[in-house]
């Protein structure tokens, strides 16, 4: 996520009835009254969402990073014979034994650097736009149209930060026999040989993937929450289970788009050469055509196992960490109010 699963529009809640888990609705010992929560100064609430989102984004991307490395390799359309894996565990074991203990973590530093600011910007933009647009569309209430527009614009900002760092640089460092040994070396080489445009070659693909991913993710998550946490209290177990299920369903459904994105990011030389493609592959239509020529319909689901295994705990971590810090920071802010 972000991957990277994006946390989506409905996490932060709303003035009328917060969608998704949030602070408990009833007051009690150690719990937040919903009226007090909604009356927080806007600056405090915005800072809370930024910090909680940044921490959740970093945790989400770093804890599951080794599996993400495996996913990138398993999506290779024409992998090197030494980099053909039957499963996630076998791939991790083989990477460590043949390439070194730290090989599955190569590129994690650039992901950490991008995840924090990207998720902080996401929530800052979302909260600000949601409030402003809701006042226009539905004064005093919760406008779904405002939430949708705010989430879409926030995703544009998030991916603008994460796409060069996580997608282009990270995935090239993760590939087998990658010629790059460091983040800075990769950035310099890509800039020198492919230009600045290379860092955003898959940007539209990323956005195209994130829209259906987020839609499926949140539909599934909300359905799970209706059964597991109908009162929408701070309930860690329900956040974890619902997040894991939602992440798995969304990940499986959007794997074809992720395969195309990986091809655009890595510009896999062996695969492109076999089709006598010169220069750099660009555009979603070309990526779809290339994947189909190389692997047929099954090619669109390469790495689906690794993607689901990565996304389930990743999404569960993101939801649980985000909601915990949101609840904890809001509680502290309320305690400091005169």
UniProtKB/TrEMBL annotation:
Its main location: mitochondrion. GO terms for molecular function: ferrous iron transmembrane transporter activity. It is a multi-pass membrane protein. It catalyses: Fe(2+)(in) = Fe(2+)(out). InterPro entries: MCP, MCP_dom_sf, MCP_transmembrane. The keyword Amino-acid biosynthesis does not apply. Keywords: Ion transport, Iron, Iron transport, Membrane, Mitochondrion, Mitochondrion inner membrane, Repeat, Transmembrane, Transmembrane helix, Transport. Pfam families: Mito_carr. Solcar repeats lie at residues 44-132, 142-227, 234-328. It is found in: Mitochondrion inner membrane. The keyword Membrane applies. One of its GO terms (biological process) is iron import into the mitochondrion. GO terms for cellular component: mitochondrial inner membrane. It comes from the Eukaryota. PROSITE patterns: SOLCAR. PANTHER family: MITOFERRIN-1 (PTHR45758:SF4), MITOFERRIN-1-RELATED (PTHR45758). Mitochondrial iron transporter that specifically mediates iron uptake in developing erythroid cells, thereby playing an essential role in heme biosynthesis. Belongs to the mitochondrial carrier (TC 2.A.29) family. This is Mitoferrin-1.
């Amino acid at each position: 996520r972000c991957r990277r699963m994006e946390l989506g529009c409905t996490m932060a809640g709303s003035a009328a009835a917060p969608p998704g888990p949030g602070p408990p609705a009833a007051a009690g010992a150690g719990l937040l009254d919903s009226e007090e929560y909604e009356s927080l100064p806007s600056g405090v609430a915005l800072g809370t969402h930024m910090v909680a989102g940044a921490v959740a984004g970093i945790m989400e991307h770093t804890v599951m990073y080794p599996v993400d490395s495996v996913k990138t390799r398993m999506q290779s359309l024409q992998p090197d014979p030494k980099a053909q894996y039957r499963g996630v565990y076998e791939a991790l074991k083989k990477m460590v034994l043949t390439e070194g203990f730290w090989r599955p973590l190569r590129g994690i530093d650039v992901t950490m650097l991008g995840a924090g600011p990207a998720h902080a910007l996401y929530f800052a933009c979302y909260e600000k736009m949601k409030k402003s647009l809701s006042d226009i569309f539905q004064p005093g209430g919760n406008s779904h149209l405002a939430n949708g527009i705010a989430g879409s614009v926030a995703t544009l900002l998030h991916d603008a930060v994460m796409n060069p760092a996580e997608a282009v640089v990270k995935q090239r460092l993760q590939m087998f026999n990658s010629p790059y040994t460091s983040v800075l070396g990769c950035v310099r080489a890509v800039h020198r040989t492919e230009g600045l445009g290379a860092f955003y070659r898959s940007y539209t693909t990323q956005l195209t993937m994130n829209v259906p991913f987020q839609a499926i993710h949140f539909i599934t998550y909300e359905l799970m929450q209706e059964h597991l946490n109908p009162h929408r209290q701070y309930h860690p177990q329900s956040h974890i289970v619902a997040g894991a299920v939602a992440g798995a369903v969304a990940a499986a459904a959007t794997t074809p788009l992720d395969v195309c994105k990986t091809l655009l990011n890595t510009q896999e030389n062996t695969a492109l050469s076999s089709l006598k493609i010169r220069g750099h592959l660009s555009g979603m239509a070309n990526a779809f055509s290339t994947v189909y020529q190389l692997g047929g319909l099954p090619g669109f689901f390469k790495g689906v196992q690794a993607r689901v295994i990565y996304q389930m705990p990743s999404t569960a971590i993101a939801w649980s960490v985000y909601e915990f810090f949101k609840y904890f920071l809001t509680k502290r802010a309320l305690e400091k109010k005169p």
